[in-house]
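Running this now, will post back.
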Amino acid sequence: MQERDQLKSLVIREATPQDTQEMLEIFNYYIDNSFAAYLETPVGPEFFKTSHDEGETNKSEPYPFYVMEEDNRVIGIGALRPYLPFPNFQHTGVLSYFILPEYTRKGQGTKLLDFLCQEAKKKNMKNLLANVSSKNQASLNFHLKHGFAECGRFKDAGTKFGKYFDIVWFQKFLEEG
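Update: finished.
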């Protein structure tokens, strides 16, 4: 379940427990420095429970975290989860992904998004949702550029750094085939 970009030794794969520290560094960066991650306090290893137990794949967990590596360095993390845990919502997924800041605006986010869309199709998902802080203009633009449409907004739903922000929901319908 790996996807490789031969030109840049880019790999997107399921996360393992050995990736936890690098995943934490990426996510906690966004907690500390932006509105991209909503939390205000850095998280610990328990936040990224992977689908692996002692290095063995747990096939009962169909929604693992993913990591994006370039030259054996984790530069991004992604997740694809069901919108709700009920069988009648299995065709709608929610995406989340974060790329190290020095790798943004270089096409890596697009590659990770494309990978997550392909994984969603394999899981028979028909549409994807993403929620973004109204204070995260780069992510708002990214989603619009990649075929997502705003489908809802919760005004002043959260606070961070002493400022209120809206939660903007986006939706993208996946093509058949």
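Helices lie at 20-33, 108-122, 137-145. More later if anyone needs it.
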